[in-house]
Amino acid sequence: MGSVLNKDTVEVRFHGRGGQGAVTAAHILVDSAMRAGLWGTAFPFFGAERRGAPVTAYARISHSKVLTKSMVRRPDAVAVLDPAIMRYVNVFDGLKESGVAVINCTEPPTLPIKIRLYVVDATKIALDLGLVLAGWPLVNVAMVGALSRVIGIKLNYVLEAITNILTGRSAELNAKAAERAYYEVSEVGAS
Amino acid sequence: MERAEYLLPLSRPKVGVQGVTGSWRIRKPTINYVKCIGCGLCWLYCPDSVIDIEDVGSRFRVSIDYTYCKGCGICASVCPVKAIEMVKEV
Amino acid sequence: MVRLTLTGNHCVAYAVKLSKVKVVSAYPITPQTTIVEKISELVDLGDADIKMIRVESEHSALAAVYGAATAGVRAFTATSSHGLLYMHEMVWWVAQARVPLVMAVVTRTIGPPWNIWTDHHDIMDQRDTGWLIMMAENNQEVLDETIKLFKITEDPEVYLPGIVGLDAFILSHTVEPVEIPEQELVDSFLPERRQPYVIKSGEALIMGNVPSDLLTNSRMRWDIHLGLRRAEKVIDRVDMEWGKLTGRRYGGLTECYKCEDADYLFVGIGAWVGDMRLAADRLRAVGMRFGVLKIRYVRPFPYLRVLDSVRGKKGVLVFDRSVSAGSAGPLFLDLVSHMYPHRLNIPIKNVVAGLAGYEVNYEDFFRIGESFVKEVSETGWVSEFLEFYPGR
């Protein structure tokens, strides 16, 4: 793990549902990157927010200042917060051949393409910790933990970012969730 | 005379213009036909026109198009006999 | 100094707090809303001592902060698109009243059709009003320039209101690392508020009644033009002062990126200037020496500085994200109208692009730059001075 950041700029796409916190996840990832001495930008798919609808959020992590304001079309990494949306959305669209995918699931899906696939049961982590809001397990921050491990951002920066962006009990529980996901994420098919 | 071409900011309502909006749903409205009195209130209130009604004589028979239903729950909320239950889907 | 990751809109909110603004009033409109939401959050947390005035429209929002500013306090509002158009009458009023205050405009296109993405029609529609108008390229610049605008607008040489412009979503909702200056640093930078008059209770003063002398009224109008021209020096001076304190200088009225040895220039305003920089670098890598002239202030239009930058170039490409329908892009119109009386005759083309939020990025600028060089070197001039970029 951690080889993705060898490149100058890493482009990330988060897939989730409106209200699931994909934008916050992208923000925490960039804040973690800044703490690790990198630069980055995080942005939503620009448009009206729609609760429940499949949504995307993006991040660029770079060793130098990011100048472009363009959309991410060829991501190096995708993170999928809700595997159910894979029925409707091609989450691997545009993913580079050298790219990685981190999926929140219990059973690794069979994929039509060959990529480096990582899985973590972020829903279980959220339920174990009681991270549930309005009936939804909150998996977004746990997924940042898993993704950070995969792309090579150290856990302490992620935890710092979480306590900076979130507050109180939410920060505490999400930090635990991110830490568990950081260690529990595993590569499918890796020996 | 040659007719000028111009673009107008107009559109007409059609099915599925926002895609398969049924994918947004996290709770599914489920009709209990034993309780349903066929009043048609859900049909009137549905903001996305995904409830169809069929006149079967003395009352309506309602059905929901789950391909486009977003699961907002308004139908369940307005139902006077609580015949629609929002069932967790994901 | 602390470093945070913030959206452009939150940068505005922090700048308003650091500038010790006393009154804020605004009406919600996407993509502006999160500016005022953040300010009210800071007030709620006890981090900012600001009176928030709730209003029923943007017209009233500007009227409210205008009232507060006339009474002698720093005041702020923010809006976008249709909100700004609805406010337009008051925009003229505040400038002619010579009341310094600051407004953030999160640039958004105008409907129909309903659309919340960026273009510059809303902000460019204000350029005759007498306000200072600047466009930022990134979030740090948004934060810095909002603070600086209080100083610039409150300078006795200026005494006019000012707009800080930021592109919808690509700045307003995009998170970047930003340095937040200490309160003491901002305090040492911003003097006590100055303004040409203060309306106090117990003192009879009439503002804006029917003039008895139309020539004086006529001169008042022209005086706004003179105030904006004097603002050029103030903008540059304040940029240097801020640079000394923070290490961040932006060039004042304009910034030139690799202009000195450039044969060709991109000219533009706002967030897409970042993509122009990338395109210029890539064009240089294939032997076409491009530079980027970033115009920071649209009003006052810094024509002397701009003419200095374009003089001697083989060709200039001006990008407008709005169009004065029936004429050409407003940036281009400003630039060329000053070239002729200064006997500057070089190939120049106006590309109108990115309207209604259509994305135009470094790849597009590269392509447009490449074909412009071909056109100019083959014909020695430009075939069409105005083009609409149809996209990829």
Quick structural summary:
The complex is a heterotrimer of chains A (191), B (90) and C (392). Chain A has 191 residues and is α/β, with parallel strands linked by helices. Chain A is built from five helices and nine strands.
Q: What's the shape of chain A?
A: globular
Whole-number radius of gyration of chain B? Answer: 17 Å
Look at the structure and give the mean pLDDT of chain B. 89
CATH superfamily of chain A: Pyruvate-ferredoxin oxidoreductase, PFOR, domain III
Q: CATH class of chain A, please?
A: Alpha Beta
- What name is given to the CATH topology of chain A? Pyruvate-ferredoxin Oxidoreductase, domain 3
Secondary structure tally: strands of chain A: 9
Instruction: Round the Cα radius of gyration of chain A to an integer and report it.
Output: 15 Å
Count, helices of chain B: 2
Count up the domains of chain A: 1
Q: What's the quaternary structure here?
A: heterotrimer
Overall pLDDT score of chain A: 92
Walkthrough of the structure:
The complex is a heterotrimer of chains A (191), B (90) and C (392). With 191 residues, chain A is α/β, with parallel strands linked by helices. Chain A has a single domain (4-187), classed as Pyruvate-ferredoxin Oxidoreductase, domain 3, CATH 3.40.920.10. Chain A is built from five helices and nine strands, in the order βαβββββαββαααβ. In chain A, the strands form two sheets. Chain A has a seven-stranded mixed β-sheet with strand order 2-3-1-4-5-6-9, covered by helices on one side. A two-stranded antiparallel ribbon of chain A has the order 7-8. The two termini of chain A are 13 Å apart. Chain B has two helices and four strands, in the order βαββαβ. Chain C is an alpha/beta fold and 392 residues long. The model of chain C has no long low-confidence stretch (mean pLDDT 97). Chain C has helices at 8-18, 33-44, 58-70, 81-96, 121-124, 139-153, 183-189, 214-246, 273-285, 303-310, 330-339, 362-379, and strands spanning 2-7, 23-25, 51-53, 75-79, 102-107, 132-135, 162-167, 175-180, 254-257, 264-268, 290-295, 297-299, 315-320, 348-352, 386-388. Chain C has a seven-stranded mixed β-sheet, with helices on both faces. Chain C has a six-stranded mixed β-sheet with strand order 9-11-10-13-14-15, with helices on both faces. A two-stranded antiparallel ribbon of chain C has the order 1-8. Chain C has twelve helices and 15 strands. Chain C folds into two domains: 2-246, Rossmann fold (3-Layer(aba) Sandwich), CATH 3.40.50; 254-388, Rossmann fold (3-Layer(aba) Sandwich), CATH 3.40.50. Chain C is globular. Chain A binds chain C through residues 26-27, 30-31, 34, 39-44, 46-48, 66-71, 164-165, and chain C through 3-5, 30, 116-117, 167-171, 173-177, 271-272, 274-275, 277-278, 357, 359, 361-363.
